[in-house]
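Sequence in, structure out.
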Amino acid sequence: MYQLFCDTNSELWFSEAKELGLSVIRMPYVLDGKEYAYDLGEATDFKHFFGRMREGAVPTTSAINEQDYLDYFEPVLQEGKDIYYISFSHKMSATFDAMDRAVAALKEKYPDRVIRTFDTKAISFGAGFQVWYAAQKWKEGATMDELEAYLEQLRAHTVVYFVVDDLVYLKRGGRISAVTAAFGKLLGIKPLISIAEDGTLQSVGKIKGSKKVISEFIRLMHEHNCNAGYRIKVMQADCPETGEALASAIRAEFGQDAPVDCQMVGPVIGTHCGPGTLGLIFYGDR
């Protein structure tokens, strides 16, 4: 018997995580000098968070440490269960160095227990997409090997795109230069960001003007042969009207029964992309 873990950078909604019986590792963020642990939206004041960012507040994020991982994992091992942790991209955080140390210590302390991890090589619901489908297999009784094989093929078909409203947040994170950010804002250019096969973010294009974003997303869905039999997720960072407009456009293009829904971006991811970000996750040809 094993317990399935994920983290809040998967941005799976809290009610889904509870319904599936997942153990969730909460990632931290700091706003106005106070530290929070993201709870997948259960009690998060999204309006306050993004409102403060719009007012000029600069939230930060940090990696959890080795002891945090021990605190999450050891009680499960003490119950006699093994652990399978599906994480966000290891290329995007130093937290996994701490995780590796914790896992090594626990394997030495509990030699009869198994701890396995899977790198989704994605972030936000790009990771959550894989967690949600893997959890269905886990609930059906899939072994760790069966789950890993399923996740490997699912990862190869998880498509993630997003655009940001203000390049200043990518500049702060070192993703683009100050000059690029200044010219981008002046010209109304929105960088189109995706995730490379190694799990890093990459700029794959530029969209000039907000009105072209939705049509470009629809074009990309066709380009990647979107399979509307899988969930389609729109992520929006305090821009619900734009998010719903994209969801409506997807239904118009792929059928009113297309399994698309729109969800708010959480504070940890929001810290790095900023308010006004619009993202899209679907199953297709990567």
